[in-house]
Amino acid sequence: MHEIYLTKAGHQKLMEELEYLKTVKRRQFSKAIGEARSHGDISENAEYDAAKEAQGLNEKKIAELEAKLATARILDDKDMPKDEVLIGATVNLKDLDTGEELEYTLVSELEANYDEGKISITSPIGDALLNHKLNEVVAIKIPAGIIKYKILKISR
After folding, report:
1. Is the dihedral of CA 85, 86, 92, 98 positive or negative?
2. C-alpha–C-alpha distance, residues 140 and 147, integer Å
3. Which of 67, 100, 123, 129 could disulfide-link to 95, CB 3.0 to 4.6 Å?
4. At 42, is the secondary structure helix, strand, or coil?
């Protein structure tokens, strides 16, 4: 498995999700299985089968999260250059075609959440912005064509 880089906030969020899956969700599935079992014969009990399947999916997600967190490296951005777009950086951009200003934070795939303005460094935009500096213009090839962004600000 390849190394995963996480921000401190991203690591904390995943730890909280793991704890939730291990405690709250496990209890919910155990209770659902117990209730389904109390309905009698489990050999033809769809409710029991569904609860067991959901429990198995939860256990799989727990194992995957534990594996990812075991190999994750938490980013310490105090030693990172402040004038270069790297993972963990928040970048203010200007779309040179529309004049629209955008703000993205570059994160790992595990933390990416477009609604929160967090884009993956492996996405077309995230990948294209990496290693560029303040005031540079970056041309990014996307399925709809080519967009040009000017880097207005880089912060951490």
Report:
1. positive
2. 5
3. 100
4. coil
- Distance between CA atoms of residues 58 and 38, nearest Å: 22
Number of domains the chain contains: 2
Q: Residues 20-52, buried b or exposed e (16+ Cβ, 10 A)?
A: ebeeebeeebeebbeebeeeeeeeeeeebeebb
pLDDT digits (tens, 9 = 90+) for 6-61: 888 888 889 999 999 999 999 999 998 888 888 777 777 788 888 899 999 999 99
- For 22, list phi and psi in degrees, rounded to 5: -75, -25
Question: In 3D, which of 125, 99, 120, 100 has the Cα closest to residue 109?
Answer: 120
The CATH number given to whatever domain includes residue 66 is 1.10.287.180
3-state secondary structure of 76: coil
Q: What is the pLDDT of residues 59-92, one digit of tens each?
A: 999 999 898 888 888 877 677 777 889 888 999 9
Domain that holds residue 47: 4-74
Q: Among 74, 99, 134, where does a domain finish?
A: 74
